[in-house]
Amino acid sequence: MKKVFVYLSAFATIVSVVQAATSPSPLRAELLSLIGSPSAHLDTKIRNEFSTKLQAFADTPDVDPSDIIFAIGASVFGIDITTPVKKADGGSVEKPVIVDFDFMKQFMKDVFLTYGCTEDQAEISSEVLIESDKRGIDSHGLGRLKPIYCDRIDKGILWANKPISIIKETETTALVDGNLGLGLYIGPYCMDLAIQKAKKYGVGFVVAQRSTHYGIAGYYSQMAAEAGCVGFSGTNARPSIAPTFGVEPMLGTNPLCFGIPSDEEFPFVIDCATSVNQRGKIERYGREGVSTPRGAVIDNEGIERTDTEGILRDMVLGKCALTPVGGAGDKMGGYKGYGWATTVELLCTAFQSGPFGEEVCGVDRETGKPKPMPLGHFFLAINIESICSLQTFKRNTGNLLRALRGSMKSPKGPGRIYTAGELENEARISRTGQGGMPVPKALQQNMIDLRNQHPNLKEKYGKLPFE
Ligand SMILES: NC(=O)c1ccc[n+]([C@@H]2O[C@H](COP(=O)([O-])OP(=O)(O)OC[C@H]3O[C@@H](n4cnc5c(N)ncnc54)[C@H](O)[C@@H]3O)[C@@H](O)[C@H]2O)c1
């Protein structure tokens, strides 16, 4: 009873604040009525309608970017429409560039083909990248195309077209060699193999050796969840995390990811690094000009650093390290994140005697030249039907997730409790509603550079959507 009261009173406050900001727009009035009831945000149909209408409202001439309806869309419905930004002169409204997903996937595919991938390799690799953008994980989609994949191919430390070989195989396990080809292609191959084994024998576990950056771990766990399996995947990466009570970057940001099917429109997918922040987040703090939270970064002197600009500079020089989930020291349980990061590094290297730490930093310390970063990954699929009915399992999962989201909310919080995978699902809905993904200036420039470098791309993409 108490929790219902807390929620209703928070909800009433939101509605009255919105109404107070009176606007004659009928579209705005419709949005307001869609917010209508305290459980509207749980109804997929209402959420989708809200998303489409919010986008239409954002496109209205002279819309006020600071209209609280956008904040409500983000906090109550999880629909984060990139609101129009007023130009510095306070004059006309400058809209963000939104590019259609299909166009963007085709562009990325054409880039991979240009770099020498087969049709299959280009199709799958661009699919993994566009999926990150659809889920709102901007750090791992288009944003990685040039700096991580194209530039590394150009540097000769990653190869676009390499065969995948199975080194050792049993009914339930396999060791796969990626031959330093695209991790974006090796990853889906391995998880698909794990799922096939799970469907036949209950469980499939695949380890990849000599792979490269495979993108978002959640892609692989979600693949398994969508096939009726529990999915589990992780990868090691160049050294960034210092051990608890240490200051040297030793472990990758090593995501550890589970995907678990549910009866809802999206599975439970916990997909994150084992560090407090991954590098991309510190770069974002830099772009936003804000400090890095204390405890997320430690330098060689043992000082917990917050000066984002200095951190970015010193990280390149190896003078700063990220801290594991739980933060620096042991007060907030940093040793737990340290343990998880180590677990991932072990599972990625110990089965296949793979390198770690300095050996996967991408630079030869003696010559300063780029060198390959042979990474390891693991993929586990557990066929749920081997243990119980999938339908029952999904219902049980859904019931637990709904109970969590329906539990008592913090009166100081944003008014929502989420479960993992939900925000990514919301991003997909809202981005689909707005007609695609936002492409910031820096990424537009990456696309222009790639297009201008390659005659076939220049011919096909004479004019990009933002030109
Ligand atoms: N390939 C690599 O080397 C590598 C390394 C590190 C990270 N990554 C990827 O980077 C991406 C981002 O990682 P990150 O560490 O920045 O993730 P993050 O800190 O943004 O956390 C994302 C996860 O937390 C969940 N989540 C977020 N807010 C929540 C809330 N309030 N309640 C419940 N769940 C919530 C999300 O649903 C998602 O599962 C991931 O896809 C990860 O796989 C890849």
TrEMBL record:
Annotated GO MF terms: oxidoreductase activity
Classification via InterPro entries: Mal/L-sulf/L-lact_DH-like_ah, Mal/L-sulf/L-lact_DH-like_NADP, Mal/L-sulfo/L-lacto_DH-like_sf, Malate/L-lactate_DH-like
A Pfam cross-reference name: Ldh_2
SUPFAM superfamilies referenced in this protein's UniProt entry, alphabetically: L-sulfolactate dehydrogenase-like (SSF89733)
Span of the signal peptide: 1-20
This protein's UniProt keywords: Oxidoreductase, Signal
Similarity-based family: Belongs to the LDH2/MDH2 oxidoreductase family.
Cross-referenced PANTHER family: MALATE DEHYDROGENASE, OXIDOREDUCTASE-RELATED
Protein name according to UniProt: Putative malate dehydrogenase
Species name: Fragilariopsis cylindrus CCMP1102
Gene that produces this protein: MDH4
